[in-house]
Design brief:
With 269 residues, the chain is of the alpha/beta class. The protein is built from nine helices and nine strands.
Length: 269
Amino acid sequence: MLYVVTVQSINDSHKEMLVLTHDAALEWMTRWDRQQEGYLPDREERFTALIDAVEALGRPDPLVIDLGCGPGSLSARLLERLPAARVISVDADPLLLGLGRAAYPELTFVSADLRTSGWTRALGLDRPADAAVSTTALHWISAPDLKAVYAELAGVLRSGGLLLNGDHMDTEDVTPALSRLERAVHERETERAFGANRPEDWRTWWDAVEADPALAELNAARSTAGADHRGSESHLLSHHVEALREAGFPEVGTLWQRGNNRLLCAVRA
């Protein structure tokens, strides 16, 4: 990877600082995307379906909030397809935000914890948003917190605005036999796509990030913020449907699906 070495004079001593460059950040993003594809071989298809839905709203310049944006994979694709869009990318992980800012300087990243009341005030909105989007992120949030997130989101979306959430969402609490089949379809597709040549997994990617000297400061900030993701708190489709309806989204349904990998769409009243 390419790094810039900066030398600072501090009390007549010299300190070398490794700074992450744009090119190095893009390399990390390529590796991030490949790691994510190991869990989602049809990830790009889901991105495409989601952006199609945003485009179908009919505005060339939609205002879009990317919830749990990570390093900005979805936001970057949105802006590439809809260059007049205004995309506000929100996450609480300092390292992923730092990586995204270095890789995609054209994006607007905001540091905010969706589980903290009032998080929408940090977005600097000057009008109601047309859509909120998310991919493989909101399952980290517990079901009770998810209800609060969607309730606050409803307050900044326009009438007819969309929530588009792509993630693995299971139906085992309602249709257990179908849920098993959905998982099996996804597992078989993944096996066909990769066989024995699976990309590196989530943990391996993070281990590599933690070993990179250029990311030391961001890693330290991440540890301080307690941003490590563990578990899958709201993996059930019913968690999201119930929370969205309570928040003022009367129409909720699956817009695209492959196995248990689905794009959930909700329309603001």
